[in-house]
Amino acid sequence: MKFLDANVLVYAYVKPKRNLTEEEKKIKKKAKEIVGRVNKGERVFTTLIHLSEVANILEKTAPIAALSKFLTGILGMDNVKVIDVSREDYLAAADVAPTQGIGINDALALIKMREAGLSEIYSFDKHFDVIDGIVSSE
After folding, report:
1. Is the residue at 51 inside a domain?
2. 50, 105 in Cβ contact below 8 A?
3. Domain boundaries, position 90
4. b/e 114-138 (16+ beta carbons within 10 angstroms → b)
5. Nearest of 105, 113, 104, 34 to residue 74 by alpha carbon
6. What CATH code is carried by the domain that includes residue 28?
7. Residues 6+ apart with CB under 8 A from 80
8. How many folded domains does the chain comprise?
């Protein structure tokens, strides 16, 4: 099982308002491929915070009905394990973030991955490539 970072879902679902660069087009294509594998049953793991991150971005670009359908769909998938996050988890992420040089939500992903014994993440954040024990997949 791999952790599914918010940016994969954002790249897959957000409809850009400008022309994408060639690199952005490649990332969007890879994101859609990952989402396709998840839709076909590949097991992934994420947190409610990461889904909230996606919802906040999609809210600005998609109709609320589409966002609602997306959230109920992903939350209803048996192969997508969505973990709740406690206050203590977020405080721990705030402590880990500066030591790893990453954002709070990425630190949260790291903490939750380690708790679950996972070492692979679907993410386009390059800093995961340099965190010891973590393999970024695309």
Report:
1. yes
2. yes
3. 2-128
4. eeeebebbbbbbeebeebeebebee
5. 34
6. 3.40.50.1010
7. 4, 38, 43, 44, 45, 46, 74
8. 1
Note whether residue 87 is domain-resident.
yes
Tell me the C-alpha to C-alpha distance, in Å, between residue 6 and each of 48, 88, 109, 111: 10, 21, 10, 15
In a domain, 86, yes or no: yes
Paired tokens of 100: 């790893």
- Residue pLDDT, tens place only, 41-83: 999 999 999 999 999 998 888 888 888 998 999 999 999 999 9
Confidence (pTM): 0.91
**48 located within any domain:** yes
Range in 75-79, 82-86, 97-101, 133-137 with the lowest mean pLDDT: 133-137
pLDDT at residue number 62: 81
Q: Is the pLDDT of residue 123 over 90?
A: yes
How does residue 9 score in pLDDT terms, banded at 50, 70 and 90?
A: very high
Confidence label for 30 from pLDDT (cuts 50, 70 and 90) = very high
